[in-house]
From TrEMBL:
Ranges of compositional bias, category Basic residues: 46-58
Positions of the UniProt region annotated as Disordered: 1-66
Molecular function per GO: carbohydrate binding; glucose-6-phosphate 1-epimerase activity
Lineage: Eukaryota, Viridiplantae, Chlorophyta, core chlorophytes, Trebouxiophyceae
A Pfam family recorded for this sequence: Aldose_epim
GO biological process: carbohydrate metabolic process
Gene Ontology CC terms, in alphabetical order: cytoplasm
Record protein name field: Glucose-6-phosphate 1-epimerase
Entry superkingdom: Eukaryota
Biased composition (Low complexity): 1-17
UniProt feature coiled coil, ranges: none
Length: 344
């Protein structure tokens, strides 16, 4: 699994010494990304050995408000009888004190999911390196009083009508027997009904119309990926696609065709690539990067704000934007996105 490799650092043995060495800090680099840059040689180290995991699992139908109660621990323990996944799950007070589910795989990779919006707020590689970016302004907003007025911006928010402002329910568990990944399902009820499944390196989104009228929506997995060097970051896999350029005026996007093999960032970018391929990669500027493989998401959004603040992240999203999903009563929709960190 890609998660076993050092995050966002070049681990390609064939790379030159210059390519393998961490890049010198530049004024345009985000400090967090720099701290994560692997030291020379680290790319070849084996992930730290960890003690055998305790087998603990997650609660069925756990209410967000009860997430930290002793009952939850009991539920988790009971579920351990049912599933034999190599890892453990904990419910903690996460960002802004929000109830957050932590999934830890035996290989060392982990993910954190805030029940507020079902937002994935952290995804760490086996090496401990964080892949996702959390916006500092978002963290400040989360520290405010309830009810939350703003969604979490950062990590991987689930864009679905109203979903980012709702607390979700931890709904069920399942085991992927082939990959033996930890999987959690979060249930968001809003208009229709959406289920978001998260495992350590992939996500499923599903929606069902449980009402008695047709239901239409757009949706996205709005993944924020932190980059080490914005000047070196590039996205591949978009050449030849039509896209809506929303940079100048989001309400009146300009339709264009992408001629570049690699999309680079010299200023703000806000583009919706239409009918995109199911594989895109973001080279973060270290010779490695994040890849997204999708199933049944039509579009890809590349969004890079260019603010006065030194926020160097890129949002590479799987989206259903150009053709809204229309569900009749009783119908359902399902899609999948899988993220990985690879040498590119
Ligand atoms: O809601 P957030 O996380 O602040 O992100 C907003 C941005 O999300 C992007 O998906 C859109 O393309 C941008 O137009 C928009 O500004």
């Amino acid at each position: 699994m890609a998660a076993a490799k050092p995050a966002l650092a070049c681990a390609n043995p064939a790379a030159t010494a210059e390519q393998r060495a961490p890049r010198a800090p530049t004024a345009r680099c985000h400090p967090q990304a720099l701290r994560r840059t692997a030291p020379p040689g680290a790319a070849h180290q084996q992930p730290r050995r960890r003690p055998p995991p305790r087998r603990r699992h997650m609660a069925l139908a756990t209410r967000a408000g009860a997430a930290a109660s002793p009952d939850v621990a009991a539920d988790i323990s009971a579920l351990n009888q049912q599933f034999g996944i190599p890892g453990r799950v904990e419910v903690v007070a996460g960002l802004g004190g929000l109830p957050t589910v932590v999934l830890k795989h035996a290989c060392g990779a982990s993910a954190e999911v805030a029940l507020y919006g079902g937002c994935i707020t952290s995804w760490k590689q086996a090496s401990g390196d964080e892949v996702l970016y959390m916006r500092p302004d978002s963290l400040k907003a989360l520290a405010g009083p309830e009810p939350k007025a703003k969604p979490i911006s950062g990590g991987i928010p689930h864009c679905f009508p109203q979903a980012r402002l709702l607390f979700c329910f931890l709904s069920c568990t399942q085991r992927l027997s082939v990959h033996r990944l930890l999987v959690l399902c979060f249930l968001l009820c809003c208009g229709g009904r959406a289920t978001v499944c998260v495992c350590v390196c992939s996500g499923h989104a599903a929606a069902a119309n449980t009402g008695d009228a047709p239901f239409e929506f757009t949706a996205a997995l709005h993944s924020y990926i932190e980059v080490a060097d914005v000047g070196e970051a590039r996205v591949r896999g978009l050449q030849g696609l039509e896209y809506l350029d929303k940079t100048a005026d989001p309400a009146n996007p300009v339709r264009k065709r992408e001629e570049r093999e690699e999309v680079t960032f010299e200023g703000p970018v806000d583009s919706v690539y239409l009918k995109a391929r199911d594989y895109v990669e973001l080279d973060v500027g270290t010779g490695a990067g994040g890849t997204v493989t999708t199933n049944r998401w039509d579009d890809v959004v590349v969004w890079a704000p260019w603010t006065a603040m030194p926020e160097f992240y890129r949002s590479l999203e799987s989206a259903q934007f150009s053709s809204p999903v229309r569900l009749k009563p009783g119908e359902h929709w399902r899609s999948q996105a899988e993220w990985a960190v690879k040498d590119l």
